Amino acid sequence: MEDAASSGEEDIMMMNLEGDMLEGSYPGLADVATKQLIAKAPMISAVVNEIVLAECGTEEDAATAASILQDRVDAQAEGGAWYPESMETWSNAQVVQNGTYVAMIATADHQEEIAEQFNALFA
Length: 123
Prior knowledge:
Blueprint: E1 4-6, E2 11-16, H1 19-25, E3 34-42, E4 49-56, H2 59-80, H3 84-91, E5 94-98, E6 101-107, H4 111-120
């Protein structure tokens, strides 16, 4: 299956963030005990579209992961995203923890929809 997400006007290839790329975006996340970890972001795009999903070993690990992900959201919203529109999108990003599961959802077009779908898995 092809990894692609549509942003309306353009197709954005979503890449897995692993190794140095994972550490560069989420310092310390690779050290958290996870059963599953998916981190996806476009390599080149002015459109914010970044998602991390993790199943951690314990709720404490999930809280640590959530803190790391919130640091990413805050850094991007406070200027790391460079462009005013991108920083605004990052300021609306969400980090959600449900037990040992955690998600970071930062997307310009589907923020609420994806967050609701993630939370519905635990309702």
